[in-house]
């Protein structure tokens, strides 16, 4: 399996990526990949540590002549986002990722690829295994659960690492050098409601929103991509306003850090309105698809008659929920006033579930400004509390403040220009990187982030550029040679 991937250059990188992708590694279920990484370090004969939360640290001495350089921490996260197309038969808990080459891209068959952050992990593994690559002393830090809470970075205690420079390999454009990132907080609204018996004169429908691109709720939030939960709510709101549509169930979105691609609702309307309801839904679907045709050409909105559901939501709760979701901010809330083209604050309405008397709406709010993050979280909280929901803010993590005077930034900036004949894009990003969290217990450590080009992260369209991986690999090797002296 994945033979053509292993033949790609640089083979040492792609072979380690193929090894890693054979190991199931969903967030919160990293036991197998932790064991895999500990076994890898032990077989190399290096000091290998698993800390109390599951992070793995492997320490490799400097190569001859590099002992006087600053010890570096090379860091990537072990877990990956698990997303698949609705028609893909795949079990992330038991199967390895099935990859293939498509021109200059490596892709997966109907699932996320795991290049985020698997290529970073594979890079570090290849360097640890190499007997020829020059480098200073390395502390390889493989964190867990980055994608669903950053609990690995949060749980890493001070004193385990001695490195003075951290190289985070989790940036997704090969011409970008990351010097800062957004923080985030989960905003989750819940409530219960009374289910009502569906009257005899009602008829059932399923409404399905699918075919959206999805994507990373930080890096892609500014692109104007469709959000399946917002689209579904628009359809439900219109159906209620015009035909008294009643909701039985909603199942929309999946992971908090993925822009939702799909949503499905089961509803009921008065049987006498069937024909005009179908015509209205078709017209509204056409309108929505026209609005999004540039960014979402594959969007499908399907309205089909089905068996009438036995239960419906309490009417007052339904009205409140659909209005709250309509009012809730989704997408960019504020652009940075200090850094051109940087999203400062945003929200992703990631998950909407209505079933058997319970409601859950899960959002991920991001910002590079702490006060703005709190402001938007309170905006969402207010909208949902007005409908009787309980709102919890959890999983709060800090941003990473840029240090434009760091020695490692000067190294990377100079090397990139020398190797490529043009300046790198030095920037903060709107994604959540672990640097800000790690910096809390290691405040003196200089940090920088970079990586190969990866597109469509957190979606089944995720793909990694082969030519970019080659460019990135050469860059990594040069960086290792030019780490400053102690």
From TrEMBL:
Cited SUPFAM superfamilies: Zn-dependent exopeptidases
UniProt cross-references to CDD domains, sorted A to Z: M20_pepD
Family under the similarity heading: Belongs to the peptidase M20C family.
Domain Peptidase M20 dimerisation, chain residue ranges per copy: 208-294
InterPro entries in UniProt: Peptidase_M20, Peptidase_M20_dimer, Peptidase_M20C
GO molecular function terms attached to this record: metal ion binding; metallodipeptidase activity
Lineage summary: Bacteria, Pseudomonadati, Bacteroidota, Flavobacteriia, Flavobacteriales
Transit peptide is among the record's keywords: no
GO biological processes: proteolysis
EC number: 3.4.13.18
GO CC entries: cytosol
Entry-linked Pfam families: M20_dimer, Peptidase_M20
Name the UniProt record assigns to this protein: Cytosol non-specific dipeptidase
Catalytic activities: Hydrolysis of dipeptides, preferentially hydrophobic dipeptides including prolyl amino acids
């Amino acid at each position: 399996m994945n033979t053509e991937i292993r033949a790609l250059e640089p083979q040492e990188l792609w072979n380690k990526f193929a090894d890693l992708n054979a190991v199931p590694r969903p967030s919160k279920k990293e036991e197998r990949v932790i064991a895999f990484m500990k076994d890898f370090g032990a077989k190399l004969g290096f000091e290998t540590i698993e800390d109390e939360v599951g992070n793995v640290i492997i320490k490799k001495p400097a190569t001859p002549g590099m002992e006087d350089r600053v010890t570096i921490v090379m860091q990537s996260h072990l877990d990956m986002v698990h997303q698949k197309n609705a028609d893909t038969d795949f079990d992330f808990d038991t199967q390895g990722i099935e990859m293939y080459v498509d021109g200059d891209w490596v892709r997966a068959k109907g699932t996320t690829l795991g290049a985020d952050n698997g290529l970073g992990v594979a890079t570090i593994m290849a360097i640890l295994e190499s007997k020829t690559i020059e480098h200073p002393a390395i502390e390889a830090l493989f964190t867990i659960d980055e994608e669903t809470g950053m609990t690995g970075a949060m749980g890493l205690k001070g004193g385990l690492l001695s490195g003075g420079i951290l190289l985070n390999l989790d940036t997704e454009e090969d011409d970008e050098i990351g010097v800062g990132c957004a923080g985030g907080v989960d905003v989750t609204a819940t409530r219960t409601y009374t289910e009502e018996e569906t009257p005899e004169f009602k008829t059932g429908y399923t409404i399905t929103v699918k075919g959206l691109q999805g994507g990373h709720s930080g890096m892609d939030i500014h692109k104007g991509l469709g959000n399946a939960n917002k689209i579904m709510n628009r359809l439900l709101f219109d159906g209620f306003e015009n035909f008294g549509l009643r909701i039985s169930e909603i199942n929309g979105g999946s992971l908090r850090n993925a822009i939702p691609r799909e949503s499905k609702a089961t509803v009921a309307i008065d049987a006498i309105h069937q024909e005009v309801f179908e015509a209205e839904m078709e017209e509204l679907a056409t309108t929505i698809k026209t609005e999004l045709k540039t960014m979402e050409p594959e969007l499908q909105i399907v309205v089909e008659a089905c068996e009438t559901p036995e239960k419906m939501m309490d009417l007052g709760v339904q009205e409140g929920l659909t209005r709250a979701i309509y009012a809730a901010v989704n997408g960019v809330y504020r652009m940075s006033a200090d850094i051109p083209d940087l999203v400062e604050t945003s929200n992703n309405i990631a998950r909407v579930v209505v079933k058997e008397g319970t409601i859950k709406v899960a959002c991920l709010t991001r910002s590079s400004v702490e006060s703005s993050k709190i402001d938007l979280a309170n905006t969402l909280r207010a909208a949902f509390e007005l409908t009787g929901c309980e709102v919890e803010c959890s999983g709060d993590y800090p941003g990473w403040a840029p240090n434009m005077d760091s020695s490692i930034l000067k190294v990377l900036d100079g090397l990139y220009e020398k190797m490529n004949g043009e300046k790198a894009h030095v920037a903060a990003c709107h994604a959540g990187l672990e640097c800000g969290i790690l910096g809390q217990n290691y405040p003196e450590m200089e940090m920088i982030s970079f990586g190969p080009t990866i597109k469509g992260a957190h979606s089944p369209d995720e793909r990694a550029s082969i030519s970019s991986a080659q460019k990135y690999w050469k860059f990594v090797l040069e960086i290792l040679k030019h780490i400053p002296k102690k």
